[in-house]
Amino acid sequence: MSIHPELYQLPEDLPDVPLLGYASAGKRGQQNEWHHHPAGQLYHVIRGSAALETQTGTFFVPPERAVWIPAGISHRGRYLAETDIRFLYVAENAAPGLPRSTVVVQVTRLLRELILEFMTFSRAEVLEGPAARIAAVILDQLRVLPEAPLQLPMPRDGKLRALCEHILVCPAEVPGLIEAADRCATSVRSFERRIVQETGLSYRSWCRQAKLFRALELLATGMSVSDVSHRLGYEGPSAFVSVFRKAFGVTPGRYFDNPSAV
């Protein structure tokens, strides 16, 4: 289906319509500035992959997933590969029942086709006729989409956040529990309690999740399973594959070939 030429441009001020479409693409390594929107946003990756950061965590968005961003949430996107994205902006009064927090969702085949069809109409056509009816079905579908466990929660505490950001940059060099607590100038018991309070995960679980997210980023660039395993500090590819399969239900080599995963 061809995209209406008008939808390659995003208006400076979003018009007062229930649903607005926008088609875009990003180059590998491109990163947007922090920003927010007065409307909710569905960030649907058609091809490629992206990571979306908010103040509360990082969300990984592989092909045929999308991240729902409520109105007013500050965020920035980072493209991990050559990526095609379809955005839907949802007016607040048209979105009752949609999540109030950022979440990654699995895009069903039905929703994907509805979005592609919606993108063939001009913006002047969305208030009535076929485009308006398609928009209504899309809004209904958004309310029932299954969530995908592709979020890495980030702490707000300054020292704890700095530690976690260091681990994200160097996931092969994860400090032990005692060293991590020392870096945060706290006792081990207080450190363990604080990270659970701020992320909902134990330190060990958070580090494992951070490695898996980094693995997804590296795999998205085309890096081999063996090289990813080495980069992340696993004892060998088999150990990495075992952890990955337990988390996502498929092997690393098949993850991007299986849009229904997670």
Write the layout of secondary structure elements.
Elements: E1 19-26, E2 40-47, E3 50-54, E4 57-61, E5 65-69, E6 75-79, E7 83-90, E8 103-106, H1 109-118, H2 129-142, E9 151-153, H3 158-169, H4 177-183, H5 188-199, H6 203-220, H7 225-231, H8 237-248, H9 252-255
Antiparallel strand pairs: 1-7, 2-5, 2-7, 3-4, 3-6, 4-9, 5-8
Helix pairs in contact: 1-2, 4-5, 7-8
Description:
- The structure is a single chain.
- The protein is of the alpha+beta class and 262 residues long.
- It is 37% helix and 19% strand.
- Strand 3 and strand 4 (57-61) form a beta hairpin.
- Helix 4 crosses helix 5 (188-199).
- The longest helix is centred in the C-terminal third of the chain and has 18 residues, at 203-220.
- The radius of gyration is 20 Å and the shape is globular.
Give a short summary of the structure.
With 262 residues, the chain is an alpha+beta fold.
- Which ranges are low-confidence, i.e. pLDDT below 50, for 5 or more consecutive residues? none
- Mean pLDDT level: 88
Ends apart, CA distance between termini? 27 Å
- Tertiary shape: globular
Helix content: 25-40%
The percent range for strand residues is 15-25%
What is the chain-wise order of helices and strands? EEEEEEEEHHEHHHHHHH
How is the biggest beta sheet arranged?
5 strands, antiparallel
Strand order of the largest sheet: 1-7-2-5-8
Class from helix and strand fractions? alpha+beta
The total count of helices amounts to 9
The number of distinct β-strands equals 9
Global Rg? 20 Å
